[in-house]
Design goal:
Blueprint (H helix, E strand, L loop, with lengths): L21 H15 L3 H13 L1 H13 L7 E5 L5 H9 L4 E6 L2 H10 L1 H5 L3 E5 L12 E7 L8 H11 E11 L8 H17 L3 E8 L6 E7 L1
Parallel strand pairs: 1-2, 1-4, 2-3, 4-5
Antiparallel strand pairs: 5-7, 6-7
Length: 227
């Protein structure tokens, strides 16, 4: 059965720009698509914006702090974008192995340049793929995380079930999400986060809990579960 997360503030909010005309709407849809899957010239620009935006940096550092990374951890990130989190995590898991999967060729190239030394040293591997069509892995992971990507997944619970299979017993998953619509509030974040936590439970994770961080322009949520 197909399960779709509501994610209020991202998918179901009224479009207050409707009265601004078709050009505004066309540009808005284009930018939304680029942030979901950067491509071409504009995708490169979007990747640079992602890498430099303070709120993105804050979400990344906060999420990583919740992972309790050990030096020898095997870690998987879904939707790594320009590779900022991959770079930070690879330094913490100094004796571990970091894998990233992203469905944007542009982001794979940007992240590969940013993590070139770690890739050449065999500490990091970045792959083109998607959460609904994951590559094959020889070993399980200690930690899996994803930041602001789950709202682009077509069947999130089914995808979470597949990620459950990739974790070792006792492994941890962290799913961070922050609403980006103009009408979003801290209450929106809480509702979204609770829905993600509920779907982690549906996917088979245990001890599911929700963490909230107050940042601007609106708070960010991270749902955590254990295999």
């Amino acid at each position: 059965m197909k399960t779709t997360l509501k994610y209020p503030g991202l998918q179901n909010q009224p479009d207050h720009g409707e009265s601004r005309g078709w050009l505004f709407q066309t540009i808005r849809r284009f930018l939304r698509a680029q942030f979901g899957r950067p491509t071409g010239f504009w995708g490169n620009i979007v990747g640079k914006i992602m890498a430099r935006t303070p709120s993105n940096q804050d979400r990344i550092h906060w999420t990583i702090s919740l992972l309790d990374i050990k030096p020898d951890d095997r870690i998987l990130e879904i939707g790594f974008g320009p590779g900022i989190a991959i770079e930070l995590v690879s330094k913490i898991a100094s004796e571990g192995f970091i894998v990233g999967v992203d469905h944007s060729e542009v982001m794979v190239r940007q992240a590969s340049r940013r993590n070139d030394r770690a890739i050449r040293g065999g500490k990091v591997m970045l792959q083109l793929g998607s959460v609904s069509n994951l590559p094959k892995f020889n070993e399980s992971f200690d930690k899996i995380f994803t930041i602001n990507s789950i709202h682009f997944w077509n069947e999130p619970v089914d995808c979470l079930k597949e990620l459950w299979k990739l974790l070792r017993p006792g492994g941890l998953i962290a799913v961070t999400i922050q609403p980006r619509s103009q009408s979003a509030t801290d209450a929106t974040t809480k509702e979204m986060g609770e829905e993600v936590a509920m779907n982690l439970d549906r996917a088979g994770f245990s001890q599911c809990k929700l963490e909230i961080r107050q940042i601007k322009p609106v708070s960010v949520a991270c749902a955590i579960g254990i295999k």
